[in-house]
Amino acid sequence: MQNTEKVDPEFDQYAHSYAGLLEDPMRSLFALDPLHFHRRKWILIERLLKNAGMNLSTLKWLDVGCGQGELLGLAGSNFAQAIGCDPSASMLSKNRAVEMHEQPSPVVLPFGDSSVDFVTAVCVFHHVHGRARTLLTSEIRRVLTPGGMCCIIEHNPWNPVTRAIVKRCPVDVDAELLTARKASVLLQTAGFETVSTDYFLYFPERLFNRLISVEKMLCKIPLGGQFALLARAPA
For the CA atoms of the chain, what is the radius of gyration? Predict the structure, then answer.
């Protein structure tokens, strides 16, 4: 049985100083603009969906664990509808420009069965532990339409720079990183079919635009700072 009891989300304590808590000299060397990381994620998500034959303009997108809604604000206009949810009301309160809903618990999504076509969970699962990971994955499958798509994006534990940044970040004090293989097994156990796994964040912001084609060629080498796993729900 799922735990629907309301708890005080840990991110409530971070909401008022979230951007500052993410600051790190090593992270700043990689990108000075915080939105750069969201843009990189969106470039990859868009490519993965189009490669999978999805028409974005017809899809209802749900961003699980959306935080302050930066990714929704950046990419939401490409979809028929874009909504988010997060257990932290304080994080959600920082952005009124996009539609976001508070989750009753970290493993319960406040949406009906088969109500969305596409779900993202961006750097969410490393904050979810033990059996809760299975419960959240089942919830994602529940809200997806048959044949709907799910994209998990996570820090790559095989990248030493990523590990160093995560270790020093106050927001990630509870982080339990998972490999792409573990993420794939988690989704497959819930009935999903893995469509693709891509690694990215190889190059700093100042070089990315010149080396975007090189990064595409490196996407199957498991050394990028993060990975994106696209999977399809059972039809």
Answer: 17
pLDDT digits (tens, 9 = 90+) for 96-134: 889 999 999 999 999 999 999 999 999 999 999 999 999
Closest CA to 231 of 192, 189, 180: 192
Q: How many other CB atoms are there within 10 angstroms of residue 85's CB atom?
A: 21
Distances (CA, A) of 116 to 108, 134, 141: 15, 19, 10
* DSSP string for 104-158: SBTTB-SS-TT-EEEEEEES-GGG--THHHHHHHHHHHHHEEEEEEEEEEEE-TT
Chain mean position to CA 157:
16
The vertex-75 CA angle with 74 and 80, nearest 5°, equals: 140
10 Å CB burial of residue 25 (0-12, 13-18, 19+) is: exposed
List helix spans (H) across the chain.
Answer: 18-22, 25-30, 35-51, 70-75, 89-92, 131-143, 160-168, 180-189, 205-217
State pLDDT tens for residues 58-104.
Answer: 999 999 999 999 999 999 999 999 999 999 898 898 888 899 999 99
Measured CA to CA in angstroms, residue 128 lies from 26, 175, 177 at distances of 25, 8, 10
Q: Encoding tokens for residue 223? A: 């050394």
Partnered with residue 153 across adjacent β-strands are: 122, 228
> What are the extents of the domains in the chain?
10-232
Q: What CATH number should be reported for the domain whose range is 10-232?
A: 3.40.50.150
